[in-house]
Amino acid sequence: MKTITRQKPYEEIMQQLEFCNRVFIVGCGTCATTLQTGGLEQVLELKEKLQDSGLLITGWAVIPTACDEMTAVVAAENETAIQGANAILVMACALGVQRINMYLDQPVLPGLDTLFMGLEEHSGYYMEACAQCGQCVLGYTAGICPVTACHKGLLNGPCGGTNRGKCEVDQDRDCAFTLIYNRLKEQNRLELMKYYHPPRNAQVLPRPRVKILDPKEMEQWV
Amino acid sequence: MGVIFKDLLDSGKFVVTAEVAPPKGTDLEQMLHHIDLLKDRVDALNVTDHQSSVMRFPSLGGCFAVKERGGEPILQMTCRDRNQIALQSDLLLAYTRGVRNVLCLTGDAMTVGDHKQAQGIFELDSVQLLRTIDLLEEGKDMGGNELSGKVSFCKGAIVTPEADPWEPQSCKFEKKVDAGAEFFQTQAIYDLDNFVKFMDYASQFPVKILAGIVLLTSARMAKYMTDNVPGIFVPPNLIDELSSTPKGGSLEKGIEIAGRMIAALKKDSICDGVHIMAINREEVVPDILAAAGL
Ligand code: SF4
Ligand code: SF4
User: Fold this and answer.
1) Residue B168 CA to chain centroid, in angstroms?
2) Do B231 and A164 touch (CB under 8 A)?
3) Is B106 on the interface with A (CB under 8 A)?
């Protein structure tokens, strides 16, 4: 699984940085490196660009995994450079941005837009496989998620827009229900195409969402 | 008109419906003109619901206008723009204002319309919307609460006989039947042999089928639809017929073709009626009816 990100337009990055003149840049060694949106190369590229725009870069770091708690260690190691900056620009997913925001006092700004959680189907091809809907229907849909694979997130079968098995919004992508039908057929479970799905519950876990692990559950992992 | 659409469907008469589109804005003149032109010529008039995801005057408002002018409206209702509460409350309003027919649709994708950044809701799909109406008819809402005063509608849905692939579409069609759809208006059909095959299948279900008739206005349009519009197939002989028509005559030819198809469907009692879609050419619907001998 990778968090799929894309770089914000440079103008938007500059707009966010309008209030400051000294910046510390953070990249991420995991998803953003694989996606080439916030790895070493992109951090150095952006550093050059910002310097050309007249900003002082007090330092930079590519944190191994920006969203995990080790980020605190990297923040401590770079304390001086970070202290010298009046903004932190994070080229990681929004989880990385928020993780760093927990440790630092300065404004922490996103350099990337976070798009979806991607499953690598084949090399370099990531698909959104799950929207964390909280009531998984994969058991009825041959393991293909209609919430993410169907443009409209329908449950009860194809809309009228299916065209030669493709989705009405993109002729290069399969209609979810063509895929589901074919796979159910292979599995000899076509009767599931007739299964009535009631409306989804939009409030399975109302926001803001948190999960608090029981101390006993935690013990098992240490 | 004065006759209730549901009674007409049940009477076994060859039913004819057409549709009008609400305007983009508050100038209702053209829509009202189309309503006046058609209300006594057809058995019921669909009012489209932000068709192709284009923001317009509401379908509900159009239905009220049909009603006020003595016509029988069919409220098209998509699941794209409203959540459960909004859909249910619009159904309550429709009922209290005399609207008795609802066509339940999923709705086009938001990205094809003119508000491309808007959220497509799709909290319900067409099957779930049909079942929701059932619930309201029983005097309950989706939250499980009692209604003071229920609704009663003749419920419709759509089906695409030429869908490719057909099997997933047929599963959905059967789910709509199970969910209480009483009539179906089909996507445009042009190949009568294919349609007869579809009717062989569909006639095993206790529902009325109105064949979709979309007016062809040129050979170019016919080719474009075959190549680009999901579930539409115009056979080559019709395209040839249109392209061999002298310049300026293709609208006439399209009217003739539509009339001919309707007459054939009626003569052999292939289906229960037709739904005529003369998109942007509503004025010629009476000519199509005349060409069909209706
Ligand atoms: S149905 Fe789809 S979105 Fe919901 S939990 Fe399962 S995979 Fe995720
Ligand atoms: S064509 Fe298929 S995948 Fe696309 S919106 Fe319709 S049902 Fe969903």
Assistant:
1) 21
2) no
3) yes
Gap from B98 CA to chain A (nearest CA, Å) = 28
Token output for B207: 């529902």
Two structure tokens written together for B28: 């209702």
The reported pLDDT for the residue numbered A221 is 61
Which of B124, B167, B230 lies at the smallest CB-CB distance from A199? B124
Q: Which two tokens stand for residue A165?
A: 């098995």
In the block, tokens 């916030």 appear at A38
A192: Cβ contacts below 8 Å, ≥ 6 apart: A140, A141, A142, A184
The answer, yes or no, to whether the previous bond of A198 is cis (omega within 30 of 0) is no
State how far Cα B237 lies from the chain centre: 26
Q: Can you tell me the distance from the alpha carbon of A53 to that of B263, in angstroms, rounded to the nearest whole number?
A: 73
Residues A15 and A67 reside in one and the same domain: yes
Measured between beta carbons, the chain A residues lying within 8 angstroms of B231 are: 160, 162-163
The confidence band for A222, taking pLDDT boundaries of 50, 70 and 90, is: low
Q: How much is the pLDDT for B1?
A: 44
pTM of the model: 0.95
Give yes or no: residues A98 and A8 share one domain.
yes
- Which residues are CB-neighbours of B12 under 8 A, at least 6 positions away? none
Give the structural domain span for A175.
Answer: 130-194
Ligand 1 contacts (CB < 6 A) are A 130-133, 136-138, 145, 147-148
A156 contacts on B by Cβ (under 8 Å): 125-128, 172, 175
Q: DSSP label at B181?
A: -
Per CATH, the architecture of B5-159 is what?
Answer: Alpha-Beta Barrel (3.20)
Put simply, whether B125 touches A (Cβ < 8 Å) is yes
> Quick one: A96 and A142 in the same domain?
no
| Residue A219 pLDDT | 72
Rounded to a whole number, what is the largest CA-CA distance in chain B? 63
Q: For residue A12, how many other CB atoms are within 10 A of its CB?
A: 13
Question: Measured between alpha carbons, how far is A37 from A25 in angstroms, rounded to an integer?
Answer: 13
Work out the burial of residue B25: count CB atoms within 10 Å of its CB; fewer than 13 is exposed, 13-18 middle, 19 or more buried: exposed
**CA B82 – ligand 2 centroid, Å:** 19
Domain count, chain A: 2
B249-286 pLDDT, tens per residue?
Answer: 999 999 999 999 999 999 999 999 999 999 889 999 99
ipTM of the complex: 0.94
Residue A183 falls within a domain, yes or no? yes
Q: Where are the beta strands (DSSP E) in A30-128?
A: 56-63, 87-91, 108-110, 112-122, 125-128
pLDDT of residue B3: 67
Is A202 within the bounds of a domain?
A: no
Nearest to A199 among B123, B126, B158 (CB): B123
| Token pair of B180 as six digits | 């209480």
